[in-house]
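Workshop exercise sheet. Pairs work together: one partner reads the sequence aloud, the other fills in the structure field after running the prediction. Swap roles for the next sheet.
Pair: D.N. / O.F.
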Amino acid sequence: MSDQFQHVMVLTSIIIGLGITYILVGVGSVIERITGHGAPLRLSWAHATWLLTLFIWMVSFWWWEFRLLALLKSWTLAHYFFIITYAVLLFLLAVLLLPRDWDTTDNLNDYFLSKRQWFYPLYLIAVFADIVDAWLKGGWPYVQSSGVVTFTYWAAAIPVCLVGVGSQDIRIHTLMAIIICVLQLIAGFELFPKLGF
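Structure field:
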């Protein structure tokens, strides 16, 4: 079973690794710009907090998929396709958050607001994928054991998406990003600090 799991998770790990790499390269590009190489770049708390949230999400996704080794007794193509799709959603969120052409980007607030109508619906879909992923790891008992913070994190996705798509006030986006990031940190590091089965 362990060999099958490792085989199944190789592609998922590559996709998540590419997403993390994409984020790190983006952060490197920001550092390069703010240290005087290239045109001045206006930073964004909303953008930075969503990047941090996504980085934590990718790391915790990879960490928690290990539970599938013990909990998912037989793999089907549907299971495999779902896990790959979830990883792809996280990767696409990274692609949306970071400009491809840094030379044409001088304000990350404006950049984030220009992508919000794509970012938030994709974020909502990824949260739904997270709920399905939790169910795959142990059905309803596992989902229930996720705790109040995790349920709050999941439930917050709908209003965050609706407000995020409609609002052009960067302060609202910053506040939502901070709340989601804090919920994710608490759920990931307080409620589930180790892999134990």
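Discussion prompt: The radius of gyration is 17 Å. What would you look at next?
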